């Protein structure tokens, strides 16, 4: 006992005398420090001392970033191959791959093998993110025209709660033929093209193999046929405006938030929503040009007719395009869903503010609160009085 006490006292003296105090910290604190470092730097700490050698293998977040430096990007694959087998698979909670160097680093076959390894060995993984920031422009255009993108087979992550894919058309994604995403609550898909030859379509997988899905975001993704009984947040953006003959079907009665910044196909079916809290709708310039030149209604009309009531309604109105077209703005006969709070994001242009806003306000039954966001110009007192006076007359 006396020897142990003396040894402990000696150790304290050494620490207080400017020795390695950092290594004396508990593992939890050291892991917090390592988590703040780039992964490659965290791995290099294993050479500092024997105390540091196994620490990086206990990291809960593995963020593989190929980096802007060519020398670092060239060693990216070797880094991933060296790290994945050595970490404590039971402790990994988040796995991220971010590629900035294009196809030179984002090899689809290697990515698929890394994803399979993670799905098989990281039993407690909660998040999986795959992002290709900058594929080569020439390769992207070629694949978009010829459709010759390689297939990325996505494995089943049984424990993952969040999955995000941002591929810029670098690969064609195929969901697994079997298996479920039983814990998945959040799915983000951006610029992903799905394989037409896959055994399971995205809609089938989302509808039948993601029973806990609560948040779904789709950006520049074609095809939408979803049945999700627990879905509460849905975001669709730039997915239909270039798709001829597209159709959309959404069955999600528990939706609370809908963000629709996209073209609305004529063949659109949205099931009854029990209590929608927020609806955000944005008009795309491309959609408006196409619809207005064809003499059709604004895209707002197509979207809003599927929603009868919402607590909060946000409308992003590009009124400035009226001058580009020389046509009468096509929102004057628009009927808004019943709402208590309305947010208008507009770009006032000469006399268009009053002629566009007042017809909208006449349709606002039950409106109690109005927020005006006027881009490029301050809201004058006259504009506020005019708007709120109209609300009082309606309400």
Round the mean pLDDT to the nearest integer and report it.
77
User: How many helices?
Assistant: 13
Helix content: 25-40%
Distance between the termini: 83 Å
3D shape: elongated
The largest pleated sheet is described as: 12 strands, parallel
SSE class: alpha/beta
Fold blueprint:
Blueprint: H1 2-16, H2 27-35, H3 39-44, E1 61-65, H4 70-74, H5 76-83, E2 94-99, H6 108-121, E3 127-132, H7 137-146, E4 151-153, E5 162-166, E6 172-174, E7 186-190, E8 193-194, H8 202-209, E9 215-219, E10 224-227, E11 233-237, E12 247-251, E13 257-261, E14 267-270, E15 278-282, H9 285-293, H10 299-304, E16 312-317, H11 321-325, E17 341-346, H12 352-362, E18 369-374, H13 381-394
Parallel strand pairs: 1-2, 2-3, 3-5, 4-6, 5-7, 6-8, 7-9, 9-11, 10-12, 11-13, 12-14, 13-15, 15-16, 16-17, 17-18
Helix pairs in contact: 12-13
């Amino acid at each position: 006992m006396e020897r142990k006490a003396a040894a402990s006292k000696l150790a304290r003296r050494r620490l207080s005398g400017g020795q390695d105090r950092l290594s004396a910290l508990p593992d939890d604190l050291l892991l917090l420090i390592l988590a703040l470092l780039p992964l490659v730097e965290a791995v290099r700490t294993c050479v500092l001392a024997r105390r540091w050698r196994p620490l990086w293998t206990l990291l809960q977040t593995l963020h593989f970033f190929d980096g802007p430096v060519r020398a670092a990007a060239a060693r990216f694959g070797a880094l991933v191959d060296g790290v994945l087998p050595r970490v404590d698979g039971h402790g990994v909670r988040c796995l991220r791959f971010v590629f900035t160097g294009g196809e030179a680093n984002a090899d689809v076959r290697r990515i698929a093998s890394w994803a399979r390894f993670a799905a098989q060995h990281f039993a407690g993984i909660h998040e999986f993110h795959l992002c290709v920031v900058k594929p080569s422009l020439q390769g992207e255009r070629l694949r978009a025209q010829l459709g010759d993108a390689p297939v990325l087979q996505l494995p089943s992550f049984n424990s993952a709660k969040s999955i995000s894919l941002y591929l810029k058309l670098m690969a064609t994604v195929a969901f697994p033929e079997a298996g479920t995403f039983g814990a998945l609550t959040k799915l983000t898909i951006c610029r992903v093209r799905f394989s037409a030859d896959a055994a399971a379509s995205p809609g089938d997988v989302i509808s039948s193999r993601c029973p806990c899905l609560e948040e779904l975001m789709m950006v520049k993704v074609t095809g939408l046929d979803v049945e999700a009984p627990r879905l509460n947040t849905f975001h669709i953006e730039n997915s239909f405006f270039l798709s001829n003959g597209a159709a959309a079907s959404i069955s999600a009665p528990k939706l609370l938030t809908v963000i629709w910044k996209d073209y609305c196909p004529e063949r659109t079916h949205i099931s009854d929503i029990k209590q929608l809290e927020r609806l955000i709708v944005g008009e795309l310039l491309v959609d408006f040009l196409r619809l207005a030149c064809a003499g059709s209604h604004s895209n707002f009309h197509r979207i809003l007719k599927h929603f009868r009531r919402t607590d909060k309604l946000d409308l992003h109105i590009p009124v400035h395009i009226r001058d580009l077209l020389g046509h009468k703005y096509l929102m004057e006969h628009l009927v808004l869903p019943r709402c208590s709070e309305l947010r208008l994001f507009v770009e006032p242009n000469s006399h268009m503010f009053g002629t566009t806003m007042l017809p909208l306000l006449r349709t606002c039954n039950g409106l109690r609160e109005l927020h005006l966001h006027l881009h490029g110009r301050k809201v004058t007192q006259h504009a506020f009085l005019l708007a709120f006076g109209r609300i009082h007359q309606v309400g």
